[in-house]
Structures are given as structure tokens and as C-alpha cells.
Amino acid sequence: MKVTFKHSVAIVSFSVAIWSLILVISALSRYRLITQVGQTSTFMDQLVYVWPWYISWFWFTPLLVIVVKMFITERTTGFAFMAKHLALFCVFFPCYFLSFGLSVFLANGELVESTNFAEGLTRYFSQNYWAEDFTIYVCIMLGAYVSAYLQQIRIKEKENLMLQTQLYKVQLDALKSQLNPHFLFNALNTISGLMRMKSSDTATSAIAELSYMLRSILERQEDVVSVREEVQFIEKYIFFQTLRFEKRLVTEIKISEDAKNMKIPFLLLHTLVENAIKHGAQEEGNVNTIHLSATLLDKRLHIQLANTMATEQKHEGFGIGLLNCKKRLELLYHDDFELRSNQCANNQYLTVINLPAEQMHV
Fold this sequence. Notes:
By secondary structure, the protein is α+β, with helices and mostly antiparallel strands. Helices cover 65% and strands 13% of the residues. The chain is built from ten helices and seven strands. The protein has helices spanning 5-36, 43-72, 78-108, 114-126, 129-178, 181-196, 200-219, 227-245, 268-278, 320-333, and strands at residues 224-226, 249-255, 263-265, 288-297, 300-308, 338-343, 348-356. The strands form two sheets. A five-stranded mixed beta sheet has the order 2-4-5-7-6, covered by helices on one side. Helix 5 (129-178) runs antiparallel to helix 10 (320-333), helix 6 (181-196) runs antiparallel to helix 7 and helix 7 (200-219) packs antiparallel against helix 8 (227-245). It is elongated, with a radius of gyration of 36 Å. The two termini are 28 Å apart.
């Protein structure tokens, strides 16, 4: 695992803070015990006394954590894993003893004689002081593994978020490039028919509306828009469909004032409306009445779209358009959204979307 300089500084800072706290608590505890039995001492005397026991861990703790993260947490076989730990253990404890001796020298101002050192080493093992240091060593190892595991989780989460963001942008680009070529063909064909019928004013309006739609798709950089902007885009789309189907297509759009400025994914409502027209009753010569509404309630954006479906058209769950909507909403809101659709009475088909009105994840 790669350990950056910034991460190393954080490990060192955390280690110094923890051991400084332990050092102060240990010295304070000894000072209180000594004063309680009537002996004379100061807090600084006790701090100097316990200092050699803990000061070595100030620099060995971050060193151990960094070594574990860089070399031992890599995927290896069981034998290689044990060999690495054994090598680290054999290198660490001699260095720790030397560091401890240096700490004693700095605290007392003199080196320990070899005989005293041998006696001290014997005392270190006979009175189980080694058990305390070994316990600290094991705790540091466990802490290093936990830290490495959490770091790997954060890295995976960032990678997944980047992949989700890229996937979302690819899907949005696909929707932009899609603006249904069949619709563009019909739009141009409608304009051509208007020109042949010498309805130049209507043809001019149609060209202007088509220009607005194409410009909105090609020039838009943001992935989200306000409900107001999305509705304006939909109205241009409906304009062309009305030219095509005339009185067989009736639309009613009701957006509450507090919902108009709410942000939603670009082309979300357009996909729903396109789906409603694609499967609508106007294809069979009947009237397709489309009702689109959006309201804000309890900090949630509630969107409903109802349309008259064709009698021969069978909606089986989510169509491709609704599935695309669902995938986009999952990337944006994770589980904090609702998208459902179902066939109702009187040959009506209802689609409902419920979104948080405050935050988006992408």
C-alpha cells in the first residue's frame, strides 16, 4: 500500500499526541500515589522518571505503522506473511532496547554500566516488563492493520464514486446524443410539411423551437437543471408532437412555485414525457391526455406523470426509458428516491418520482 507524505505526517502527529497523553497520565498517576503516602516529589520528577519507558514509542509507533502499511499488508502467502512479521520483530526489539538505553542516558545523564545493563535486562524479562512492551507492540500491529483496512475501504469508495460519476456522465452523454433521431426526423419532416403548406409563420416557430432544444443539449455543461428549465425544454418537445398529432395529444403541466427552482437531473422529465407519448393512445387515433405535476412537500420533490395509454400497448414493468431514469437516480441519490409506475383505471398509466429536494450526490 502506498503511504503518502501527508499520510505519514498524520500518523506521526497522531502517535505523538497519543503517547504524550499516556506519558502525562502515567506521570500524574505516580505523582498522586507518592504524595498520598506522604513522600515529597514533583510532577516533573515523575515525568522524568517515566519518560524513558514511553519516549521510544513516540517514533517507533509511526515507523511500525508505516512499515506494516507499505510492506506487510500486501497480499502474500501465509509463509511470506509470517516471515515478514518475524523479520520485523527481530529488527524492532534490539532497536527498541538501544532506544530505551539512550532514553535512560538522556534522562539520568549517564550511561548504564554493562553489568547493570545485564541485570536490568534480566529484570526486564523476569518481572514481565517485556509483556507490557509486547502487548503495546501487538496493539500497534492491530491498529496498523485496522488503519490500513479503513484506508483501503476509503480508496475503494473513491474509486467506486469516480466510476459511478463517469458512468453517469456517459449515460447523460448517451441521452444527449440520443434526442431520439426518430424525433428529429419527424421534426424536420413536420417543418418541411409546414413549408409546403405555406405555413411559414408556424414553420419559423418550429425551427426556432428545434434550435432551442438542440442548443440546450449541445451547450449545457451542468448535469442538473431546475424544474423550470426542464419544463421549458419539455414544452418545446410537446410543441413538435402537437404539430404531429394535433388534437389527439393534450397536455397539462402544473408546477408549484416552490418546486420550480428545485434541481433535478437534466432530461429526466423529458424521458418520462417521451415515454408517455411513445406508448400513448394518440398512436391509435385516440386522445392521449398527459398530466405532469411537481410539488414540494416536507423537503421532498413529488413528481407525477399520467397519460392515456394505447389499448393494444402493454406496459410490463419499466420500459427502457424508465430503466434509464432509475439507473440515473440510483447514481445521484443512491437509495434516497422513489420511482414507480403502474397501470390505473380508465386505461391510464401513472409514473411517480419522489426525490430529496436539498442534496444530490453527483
